[in-house]
Specification:
2 copies of one chain form a homodimer.
Chain A lengths: L16 H14 L12 H8 L3 H13 L3 E4 L3 E4 L5 H5 L25 E2 L12 H15 L13 H12 L10 E4 L2 H12 L5 E6 L3 H9 L3 E8 L2 E2 L1 H11 L3 E4 L13 H14 L2 E6 L23 E6 L11 E4 L5 H12 L4 H12 L2 H27 L5 E3 L6 E5 L6 H8 L4 E2 L1 E2 L12 E5 L5 H21 L14
Parallel strand pairs in A: 3-14, 5-6, 5-8, 8-9, 9-10
Antiparallel strand pairs in A: 1-2, 4-11, 6-7, 10-11, 12-13, 13-16, 15-16
Chain lengths: ~500, ~500
């Protein structure tokens, strides 16, 4: 206890007392004055020692916990965590920098006007059918008046569910309207499934790399994530079976077509076997279909849901990539026996999705404008896709590996060993080109040698220009300079 | 184990195997063949015995768990629960009736065209400023084009946060724009705070009765809820302090003005002491302000957030009651140190709220149309409020207690002992009048002697007509008939 006597909080300083206390304890942890496993004094004891309010201590402990420096055991107290080197990198930073969480750590990125943006996997504003959508919005308002602004049924506006049922039927999925659940975007779908299926301590299996937003949702439930490295045709099923046997997971989260970030697709055979395997062990599958419509060269584009006789697949469909992300609309096709649980999760999350936007989308789909827009997007994206393949062939230095997808918007690259895409990023961004460093897609935030280029938000000229700049930097980086060791990446706080 | 031999699943029957298995086990539980604490066979063992897939057993066990008939211990197995009598009522029901969860159990209610609706606390469609909102929607689309449909910043559209900062300043809350978080309705706010603050096993204190949607959100996090009975001027602070000392809760959830469902408001003195108490013990407060703007006769309408020097109050503001519920828009004023955690929770939940609707609301607020609409709503609601008070005085039978609020839209009643508002409901609904039975607002789903009448969705004529019908039924029920014992209410599945 003695060491705490050296902490002196100063009420007259500009800085909040809890920040002062947080910093003092942090220094003790990083300076090894407090060791791994040491218990911090209970809140009331500490507040007496420091002559401050309990709330000051609580807040200080919370920031420490948030930074992973300490952890709580229920009913027992607060303990110093096992430390990793990276933590030290933060030292000295002002901590009102709760606010300085970098955007990229949250799966966001700041794009300046003049940047060439290979980082975003969502289409840019000029591709949106604004005028057509404005028309249907106004028609809905004239037709439904105030009813467009009332609460909508939790499961979603019935006519919209009806027409979405017809939409998925085109992709081989035959379902009842009752098994379609409207969601405020695919991320909400993932969150709802997590709420419905996962309790504290449950296991989830994911592909590695995968979509960070899904990992965050699982972790938020207190679930434990097992990641299995992707192969070029999907997950290795032998490894998957072993992991299922070992961990008895509740859920498998996958993107079987044009996976994000790798662009990898499963073969039809693998899809079938995967389904069989999960049926055998009673593992639910969340199939995240974020853009299988954008298929240019694959003949193997079937989804899992269409083969789901055992009703173990939750099919989550986003409109963000193929339509407009800001609508925050998507839907799920769910197993009948999850109906009640998912509806309750929806109610707990946001009651229902905006009725106005649901009604407008329904009218938009009914008009057939949708199919037209989809063909337009496909054409646009395929031009970019071909252009990107062309640029890779012409400009990408030898030594950089690439997985060539057959559709979608993402390309996945690997730098030669021990070169870091984060370091590359810092060079390239100075020339106004941005992309997504690979570590962002890994559970352990490692594997910095990978990176993702997306063609969703760049036109043909930008692809040409951007690839020239990027590849020049890669060339100079891997051919003229010492490789940098891994480990220096930003840590995600989630 | 022997008893399971009597189960015979028939693959050729129309019913799914998992339903057949579920029913068979349910009968064994209800028939006391399986006793409290008995362990069900592990999934693989059971599937061998029954000669079915694992997934069939998993699904059957899940439905049993969902119905509270069995529970799981992590890493140990599935056990028969302590049973309550009510469970038996469900027996014999078809269980594809996952789908038949009654609406009211989800905090919803089905309203027919010709019904007098005292049940809904949200305004009806004819009160919405549809034309004005249509105008700003179109202006936004013409001005921002595709950008209105791009992803919005997770924290919310900046100009909207700016103008909301000015809005709350009118109510005494001075905050930085950085501490305003846009949410897709107040329910999402509650969900985000739960995600940010609550882990498995944490304690939350709530008022009793309270808003069911909040309880569901806390329970979904695995938190434990302590409810404290409300007094006519708010929570008893001595009891509160004792509960805080005993349970060390993370969060207190309250509605200090015109509480839902009771209409109770805290005195200014009590608000101050409450804040002091929670500061002392380091307990965060979630202040749910769903309609303090609708103040007709109170002089004591201050909020907690305006006195929140220690930054422990999360102020959650809904627009559903005073504007339009279907927009799914609200906001929070948060303590600076929760900024990062709430933003991450938002990202995990739905990335961001619809940009189009945020931009339209910003323009609507900027035009000043808002203040005009608010005055209109206040006037409308006050007329109804006065009318309701008048009808209570004229028609409500002696023996029924009522708490008279000074604002808002809710009135809270108590039938004489052992009379059930659920029974009353079943009588009154036949005459096309509906209201909210009180048990829906309690954690234990008891206290059926209470009920709530709301004036949000009824006009003056409907109030007069509806109250006559309702009070006639009450009179005949409590004066001519045997009281009904409690315990027969519908159980919530949450």
């Amino acid at each position: 206890m003695e060491s705490y006597e050296n902490i002196h909080l100063n009420k007259r300083e500009g800085q909040h007392l809890y920040i002062q206390l947080y910093k003092a304890i942090k220094e003790m942890v990083l300076g090894d004055v407090l060791k791994e496993g040491d218990r911090l004094p209970p809140v009331r004891k500490m507040s007496k020692m420091m002559e401050v309010n309990n709330v000051t201590v609580v807040k200080a402990y919370e920031i420490l916990e948030q930074e992973g420096l300490v952890y709580k055991k229920i009913g027992s107290g607060t303990y110093v965590s096992h430390r990793e080197k990276e933590i030290k990198d933060n030292l000295g930073e002002e901590v009102d920098s709760n606010k300085k969480i970098t955007l990229m750590e949250q799966g966001q990125i700041k794009i300046e006007e003049n940047m060439i943006n290979f980082a975003s996997a969502t289409p840019s504003a000029e591709l949106f059918p604004v005028e057509d959508f404005k028309k249907v919005l106004n028609e809905v308002l004239d037709r439904d008046k105030g009813y467009a602004f009332g609460y909508q049924e939790g499961q979603g506006y019935y006519p919209l569910r009806q027409i979405l049922g017809e939409y998925v039927a085109q992709y081989g999925i035959n379902t009842e309207i009752d098994n379609i659940q409207i969601i405020s975007g695919a991320q909400q779908g993932i969150d709802l499934v997590s709420k419905a299926l996962l309790s504290y301590g449950d296991y989830v299996i994911i592909e590695s790399p995968s979509y960070t937003g899904a990992m965050a949702a699982f972790q938020s439930r207190g679930a434990k994530i097992i990641d299995i490295p992707l192969q070029e045709d999907g997950l290795n099923l032998d490894i998957l079976e072993k992991k299922i046997q070992a961990y008895n997971p509740k859920l498998l989260y996958i993107m079987p077509n044009f996976q994000n970030p790798t662009g990898i697709s499963y073969t039809q055979e693998k899809k079938e076997k995967l389904l069989e395997l999960c049926s055998k062990y009673g593992v639910y599958i969340m199939e995240d279909d974020y853009l299988s419509e954008l298929n240019y060269y694959s003949e193997d584009i079937g989804n899992l849901k269409q083969m789901d006789d055992e009703e173990i697949v939750v099919y989550v469909k986003s409109f963000s990539k193929i339509f407009m992300p800001g609508l925050r609309l998507g839907f799920m096709v769910i197993p009948g026996n999850l109906h009640g649980r998912l509806l309750r999760a929806k109610h707990t999350s946001d009651i229902s999705t905006s009725g106005l936007l649901q009604r407008a989308l329904e009218l938009y789909l009914k008009r057939g404008t949708w199919q037209e827009h989809l063909r337009y997007m496909e054409k646009k994206y395929q031009e970019r896709f071909d252009k990107m393949n062309d640029c890779i062939q012409r400009y990408m230095p030898t030594g950089v590996e690439v997985i060539k997808p057959k559709g979608g918007v993402n390309f996945w690259f690997k730098l030669p060993n021990n070169y870091s895409s984060q370091t590359l990023y810092e060079k390239v961004v100075k020339d106004n080109v941005v992309f997504a460093p690979g570590n962002l897609f890994y559970l352990d935030n490692q594997h910095g040698e990978y990176f993702r280029l997306s063609i969703a938000a760049v036109n043909l000229i930008e692809i040409e220009t951007g690839m020239k700049i990027l590849c020049r930097h890669i060339d100079s980086y891997i051919n003229n300079q010492e490789p940098i060791n891994r480990g220096s990446f930003i840590k995600p706080i989630l």
